Amino acid sequence: MSEAMGLDPADWAMWREVATMRSSIDRALEQRLQRDAGISGADFDVLHSLSVADGNRLRAGALAESLGWEKSRISHQVRRMADRGLVERTDCPTDLRGTWVVLTSAGADAFATASCGYVETLQRVLFAKLDEDDRASLRRVASTVADGFLATDAQPSPTR
User: Fold this and answer.
1) How far is the C-alpha of 21 from the C-alpha of 15, rounded, in Å?
2) Closest C-alpha to 3, from 155, 147, 104, 13
3) Element containing residue 124 per DSSP (H, E)
4) Burial label, 45 (beta-carbon count in 10 A; 0-12, 13-18, 19+)
5) Reported pTM
């Protein structure tokens, strides 16, 4: 069946292992974030981006870009987080069409609470299982794949 789909069995098996690894890590992180801080992985990603941004704020478009999300996804995510007091939206005084997403003190507290457990979980479920050569290989593979996406995104779309 996988050969009919254009993959040889070894590549299909490798892809299934990568997908299983990714979903297992994501599940472990989600469970830890929920338990420790009552937030989701998406919440954590937004809070992290804001926590490292200058002034703990980003334009909504820049936040979406930093996460690789569509603008509609960031809009819905920010609305839900603002409803819970984790972030706030403010108008941009220099561009009336622009919106800043600002980390609140409650959001900073949630991020601080979640961070230790997040790091511990990553250490336990991923990094502790890899030696330095494995880490270097994984880093190289991840970078190669990500760079391929960036190169594709930089290409103009063909016109019909």
Assistant:
1) 10
2) 13
3) helix 105-125
4) middle
5) 0.84
